[in-house]
Amino acid sequence: MSAAMSLNIAKEVSAVVSSAMASGGSPALLLIRRVDAPFAAALRQRFRVLDFFASGERLPAFLAAAAAAPDPPRALVIGGVAGVPVDTAFLDAVPSLGCVVSTAAGVDYIDLHECERRGVVVANSGSVYSADVADHAVGLLIDVLRRVSAAERFVRRGLWPVQGGYPLGSKLGGKRVGIIGLGNIGSFIAKRLEAFGCVISYNSRKPKDSFSYKYYPSVHDLAAESDVLVVACALNKETRHIVNKDVLEALGKDGIIINIGRGANIDEAELVKALKEGRIAGAGLDVFENEPKVPAELLTMENVVLTPHIAVLTSESRSDVRDHTIGNLDAFFSGKPLLTPALP
Amino acid sequence: MASAAAATATASGEPPSLPTLLLIRRVDASFAAALRERFSVLDFFASGEPLPAFLAAAGVAPDPPRAAIVMGGGPVRVDAAFLDAVPSLRCIVSTAAGVDHIDLHECARRGVAVANSGRVYSADVADHAVGLLIDVLRRVSAAERFVRRGLWPVQGDYPLGSKLGGKRVGIIGLGNIGSLIAKRLEAFGCVISYNSRKSKDSVSYRYIPNVYDLASESDVLVVACALNKETRHIVNKDVLEALGKDGVIINIGRGANIDEVELIRALKEGRIAGAGLDVFENESEVPTELFSMDNVVMTPHVAVCTSESRSDLRDHTIGNLEAFFSGKPLLTPVLL
C-alpha cells in the first residue's frame, strides 16, 4: 500500500471516528424487515441496528423502547410486512424518525400524507425491482395465453401418452394489451411485449407524452379495447378495486387479466365470479387481497396461473435492493436528497 | 383452382374431377372442408388401414395422387419405401416446421418437390421458448404447484429465482425461430450469441463457430435448430459440462438434438441448473426422473399449438398445394 493511500485511509477513519464520537457511536436505525446476512452486515457496519424481528418483542414495546433510548432512531428500514403500517400511530410512537426507507416495491402501507405533514421523508425502492416484476408479468401472460403451467401439469400427471393432444393456446402477436399504470414497471412490460408483436395501450393518472402508446383516460374503455389487461399500478385510494365488475365485463369473455400490482387493485370476489362463469377467459395473478390466502375456487381452475407474490424475488434484486437502501440511508444521514423519494 | 380441376377433366366432357390428394395427418373440420372443396381426398386416419396397405391402394388407384400432405414426425417417414408405394407423387407438403421425417435426398433424386410450413409457426415457437425460459429462471410453474398444494400459508417464502437481464443466451440455430427468440430476449436485456452452420452477416449478434464454446460462454442455451445428421445430439455430455452448474437449457427443436440420457444425468447430479423442454427423444414418453424435478419445465410439444397458427397453417398448406397444381413454384420449398 502506498504512503498516499494509507494517509487517505487514515483521514477517512479519523473522520468516521470523530463523527461517531460526536454522536456517541453509529446512528441508530430501526429495522422492521427480515434481511439476509450480507444486508445485515452492511447495515451493522454503518448503524446501530434496532432489529425488530431479532428482538422477539411485540411491536408496541419494541417501538417504545427505541423511542425512549438515549439516541433514538432517526431512520427506519421497513419491508412492507403485513400488519405493520407506517401510519399516525406508528409515527407517534417514534417521534425521532425523520426518514422511512421502504424496501418493498409498493408504498401503499405508508401514510405518505402523514409523513409529509411531519417532515418525514420517505424513500421507495425506485426501479430496483422494475425489470424483475416486468419479466414476471410477461412470464404470467405467456403462461396464461400458451397454457404453459397447465400443460406442465398434464405432462407430470402422465397424461401425454394417454390423452394425446393438449388444448390450443392463443398467439401473443397482434394481441391488444392494455396496461393500467405506465410507471417504471408498466413501461418495461410494454417494451418487452412490443418485441412479441403486441399492441400496447395504457391508462394512467395523466398521459405520458414520452411514449407513443395510445392513452385511454378511462380504465373501462381501456378494457373494452384490450385482449389482455395488465395491472401495474400502485395501490392507493384511487386505485383500490380499479378493476371492478364493470371493467371485467368490458374486458369480456375472451379477455385475460394479469396482476403484478396489489391484490386490492382488483375486486377479487368479482374476479373469481367472472372466471367461474366464463365471463373472462383467464388470469395470471402474483398478488391477492388476503395473502397468503388464495380463493379456493382458483386452485382448481386450468385457465389461471397463480404465483405467491414472487415478482421481485431474484437473487440479483436482493443485492440490488441492499445497495439501493443503503444509498438512500447514506444520502439522508449526510443531509443530501434521497435517491428515490416517494411523494404523496 | 378451376384450371387444376380442368386439367383433370375427362375427355367425355363430364364435370372435371378434383385432383387426388393423399392426406396423412389429422385435421380439424375447417381444414378438412377446405381440402374437400379443392381435392379428392384420400384420408389415411379416416381409412383405419395400416399405412403400407393404404399407400399401396392409393398407388394403384385410377387417378393416383400427385401430392400428399404429411404430418411431422409420428409414425410417418417419407422415405424410399413410401415413394415406391406411390410413384405418382410429385409433391410432399409437410405441415410441420421440421422435415426430419422426410428423406430429402430421396425426394430430390426422384424429382419430388417438398414444401414445409415456412414461417407459419415461427412466432409461436419463439414465444413458447421465451415462456419456457422465464418459467425456468423465475420458477413460475414450480411456484404455481406450491400455491395449488396450499403450501403458501404453511411454508411462507418461496426460493429466489434468477434475473433475465444480463443473462448470456446462446442460441443454436439462428433461422426464423432462432432470430425471433433473439429479438424477444433482447427486450429483456439478455445478451445474445449464436451458433449456426455459417455466420449470418445481417445480424449483430456474436457468432461462435462451435457449440461447445457457445455453451461455455452462455448462462442459457437455446436449441432452435433443425434435426439432421449433423445436429443429432448436438448438445452432448461435453456441451452440458461446458454450460455448467449454473446453466439452463431450453429445447424447442427436436428431442434428439439433445442427448437426453446425458441431460437427465446432468440434472440429477446438479451439473446444470435447470431445463425447459417442449420436445423429447421418444414422445409422448417423458423420462420419469424429470417428474420429481422442480427445476425442469416440461410441455407436451405444444410450441406450435395456437388456434391462430392452426388457421394460418391451413391457409399456407393449401397455398402450397394450389401453387403445385397450377404449375407455379411452391411458396415454401425445402431445398437440400
Query: Count of helices of chain A?
Result: 14
Q: What is the strand arrangement across the widest sheet of chain B?
A: 8-7-6-9-10-11-12
% residues in beta strands of chain B: 5-15%
List the secondary-structure elements of chain B in sequence, H or E. HEHEHHEHEHEHHHEHEEHEHEHEEH
Number of strands of chain A: 12
Report the C-alpha radius of gyration of chain A, rounded.
Answer: 23 Å
Count interface residues per chain for the largest interface: A-B, 52 and 52 residues
What's the mean pLDDT score of chain B?
93
Shape of chain B: elongated
How many helix segments of chain B?
A: 14
Mean pLDDT of chain A: 92
- How would you characterize the largest beta sheet of chain B? 7 strands, parallel
N-to-C terminal Cα separation of chain B, in Å?
A: 29 Å
Residues in helix, % of chain B: 25-40%
List the uncertain runs of chain A. Answer: none
By oligomeric state, this entry counts as heterodimer
- Computed structural class of chain A: alpha/beta
Which word captures the global form of chain A? Answer: elongated
Short précis:
With 344 residues, chain A is an alpha/beta fold. Chain A has 14 helices and twelve strands.
Describe this structure in words.
The complex is a heterodimer of chains A (344) and B (336). Chain A is an alpha/beta fold and 344 residues long. Chain A is built from 14 helices and twelve strands. In chain A, β1 (28-32), α2 (37-46) and β2 form a beta-alpha-beta unit. In chain A, α7 (130-146) packs across α10 (184-194). The N and C termini of chain A lie far apart (49 Å). The relative contact order of chain A is 0.12. In chain B, α7 packs across α10 (176-186). At the A-B interface, α7, α8, α10 and α14 of A face α7, α8, α10 and α14 of B.
